[in-house]
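Fold this sequence, please.
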Amino acid sequence: MNNNPATSYKRSYSESQSCTQPNSFKRSKFTVFLAERKASNQLECIINYIKKKETHSSRNKSNTEQLTQDIIEYYENFKQEDTSFILKQEIRNKMERIIIDIFPTASLFIIGSSNSGFSVENSDLDMCLYIPDMKEEDHRTICSNLYQIQSLFRNPNTLRSTLVIPARVPILKLVDVKNDIEVDLNINNIVGVYNTYLMKAYSYVDCRVAPLIIIVKHWAKFHNINDASKQSLNSYSLALMVLHYLQVCHPPVIPALQQRNKELFDIDNYSLQHFSDYKSLKDKLIWKSENEQSLGQLLRSFFHYYAYEFKFDTDAISVRLGAKIHRSQVNRNIPNIKYRHNQSWKYICVEEPFDKTNTAYSTYNINTFNLIKLAIIYTFKQLDLELKIGSIFHKLPV
């Protein structure tokens, strides 16, 4: 009998074309508890899940086998359901029908984790409204148009607008009252359409990608380092950090798709509609990794990499190139000079794969940066003590 956790994982999980859970990881009695999460705080839900998991977890699992099983079950319990995505598509369709009354040439795209495969249940819905012939960086016009759109959504019983946030990327916030789904709408921030397409592609090339990204996002939320408004990391940066590690580990789990499949991601040769056509995308991505490590092994190595190998003061993450590069190289690549010499490149550099800006621009506070580093190092040490999912949710010694 083959007792290698990596081999058993690959056989039971990766062989499935849809990358669904094997029979041994079908939803357990924890699902009954998790079904009530909509009415509770998500962080409390995570904590309660871990407490229950620690109570019932097997003590006979060796090495990373138990951790791998925990991650798979965690992912299956928390990931966005197909029915939820269908509901979000319906919201998108309803909004577009209303908006085209005043912007008849506009198109509405679902962007972010809801569409990339990295979303959890009850997550927000991010959308980009593309209005042709409008300058992308015309901040005043964008805000004005968002206020116009806000006036269309005044019904307190259906879609209700709440406020316009005139940030660097202006946002209109709405709520789908019936389904309690928060909606964030931007105008012409089309890089979100491009990177959602890229993220979706990475979710297709290896079925270990999505579980790792979701578990790392929940880890960051637990440690209060997943909130750009509080100068910590946004979810997109965390996803890019996971993808980067999976590209540079040996052998790589995933390739650099923008180098390997350049024709699919060439924004100069395709219309925007190309980057919302996911039907044939999976068939165009032919990749088989030689890396047979389990989810548990990869998660532990992810934390080791950022704790001891990645040098935040000199290194920058480039998923576009599939490599760790020097900060100065990233600076030379930035097309817009206003991003070259400011605080947005101060502590963590995560290159946006298309416009080459820093997705971790919000992390410019030294105390927050130190907290992020502490969380990474402390989590690795906890995993070194005990390879179980509860180890990544230990409170920091601060």
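The first helix runs from residue 5 to 14. Residues 147 and 316 are 37 Å apart (CA to CA).
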